[in-house]
UniProtKB/TrEMBL annotation:
NCBIfam families named in the record: PRK09125.1 (NF006592)
Co-factor requirement: a divalent metal cation
Listed name of the protein: ATP-dependent DNA ligase
Gene Ontology process terms (BP): DNA recombination; DNA repair; DNA replication
PANTHER family linked: DNA LIGASE, DNA LIGASE B
GO molecular function: ATP binding; DNA ligase (ATP) activity
A Pfam family the protein falls into: DNA_ligase_OB_2
DNA ligase OB-like domain segment(s): 214-278
Residues of the ATP-dependent DNA ligase family profile domain: 47-199
Keywords: DNA damage, DNA repair, DNA replication, Ligase
Catalytic activity: ATP + (deoxyribonucleotide)n-3'-hydroxyl + 5'-phospho-(deoxyribonucleotide)m = (deoxyribonucleotide)n+m + AMP + diphosphate
Domain of life: Bacteria
Length: 281
């Protein structure tokens, strides 16, 4: 059993004792992105901003998180949503991921959902190409009379230079990156070359398994978190934390996102920097 360091025990106990929303019937089968490669022919793809939100599936009558949690969206929020499945992001604004999670994780409907929009980017049950699906989504966007549903703008570019220019503009404004949908691609669950992601940095996820005490200005606080990556590598991350993060660090067992620059000879991510806790349902 992993021992909790004394300054943080009460915080972790409160997290562990928190009850969870009811599971949906099953986790949605989502189409997942692969990483963009420079050899990609840009003109074959629709381009959109990668929103810093919470992935969700509208199944025709309720919103379900990627983890299979039925979200307690108020009736007024989903009123007018179409009866077809929609794939999208619950989103507030750039840089507001944590507040979005805080709102949607509550187990009862509440007024905080007024700050949220369901931004759709695909139709999982539609059998046509992405270009055909986009035409249907645009039609939905025009016909549905609700302020809580919209589509993520999709546009076309001609060159890699244009793509990188748009990526830098989005990143400088606090955006996360770019998504590319192949124009002729069919919706399939799992990783697909028909859906690509592009960021200015490489990021990954890891599980928190321990801590290292801080020194100097961080004495009495967390100095670094000990994590295990999806490949089983164990290492410490000590950069990217606010003072508040160091006082109440990510809970043991939680999943965090971090960015890095390549790997050491032993396969450890180099210059790992904490981004955020992935605490969505």
């Amino acid at each position: 059993m992993i021992q909790l360091i004394y300054p943080y025990s009460a915080f972790f106990v409160s997290i562990l004792l928190a009850s969870s929303p009811a599971l949906a019937i099953e986790k949605p089968k989502l189409m997942l992105a692969r990483t963009f490669q420079p050899s990609v022919v840009i003109t074959d793809y629709w381009v959109s901003e990668k929103l810093d939100g919470v992935r969700a599936r509208w199944n025709g009558h309720q919103l379900i998180s990627r983890g299979g949690i039925a979200l307690a969206a108020p009736n007024w929020f989903i009123d007018g949503f179409p009866d077809m499945p929609l794939d999208g992001e619950l989103w507030m604004a750039r840089g507001e991921y944590q507040q979005t999670v805080s709102i949607i994780k509550k187990q009862k409907p509440h007024s905080g959902w007024k700050k949220i929009k369901f931004m759709i980017f695909d139709l999982p049950d539609h059998q046509g190409s992405f270009s055909n699906r986009l035409a249907v989504m645009r039609n939905i966007d025009e016909q549905i009379q609700t302020p809580y549903l919209s589509i993520i703008p999709q546009y076309q570019l001609s060159t890699n230079e244009e793509l990188m220019h748009h990526l830098k503009i989005i990143t400088n404004k606090g955006g996360e990156g770019i998504m590319l949908h192949h124009k002729t691609g069919i919706y399939r669950s799992g990783r697909s070359n028909d859906l690509l992601k592009l960021k200015l940095f490489t990021d990954a996820e890891a599980s928190v398994i321990g801590y290292r005490a801080g020194k100097g200005q961080f004495a009495g606080k967390m100095g670094a978190i000990k994590v295990r990556s999806s490949t089983g590598k164990i290492f410490f991350i000590g950069s990217g934390f606010s003072h508040k993060d160091r006082e109440r660090p990510p809970a043991i067992g939680s999943t965090i996102s971090f960015r890095y620059q390549g790997f050491t000879d032993s396969g450890i991510p180099r210059f790992a920097v904490f981004i955020r806790v992935r605490n969505e349902p």
